[in-house]
Design goal:
Structural class: mainly alpha
Helix content: 55-70%
Number of strands: 0
Radius of gyration: 30 Å
Number of helices: 4
């Protein structure tokens, strides 16, 4: 809808320029009316539309870094190594090896 508004404004400008260039206004009256109505509809819909929530949390990179650091520390400590390895295994569903240069 946001992308359509500038297109409608361009179409309206063209219609006005056509009138200024001598095209009879009666020919463009219906088109201008339809464009104005569509512009009003889009403006109202955009004003009443809620902003969609962000797809990712704004601090996602920081949270990810903290969790990886914690996992790394857990893998290094003997008392939590087994549990950390199990948590790591739940994150990986598949490992696929692709041969490169016949290796």
């Amino acid at each position: 809808m946001q992308n359509e508004l500038p297109r409608i404004d361009r179409e309206l400008d063209k219609a006005i320029q056509a009138i200024l260039d001598g095209v009879p206004g009666a020919k463009l009256k219906d088109k201008i009316g339809a464009l104005e109505a569509r512009k009003i509809e889009l403006t109202e819909r955009l004003a009443n539309t809620e902003e969609p929530p962000p797809l990712l949390h704004p601090n996602m990179a920081e949270i990810y870094q903290q969790r990886i650091a914690s996992l790394y520390e857990s893998l290094q400590a003997e008392e939590t190594k087994t549990e950390a390895a199990e948590r790591l295994r739940t994150l990986v569903s598949q490992i696929t090896l692709q041969p490169a240069d016949s290796e």
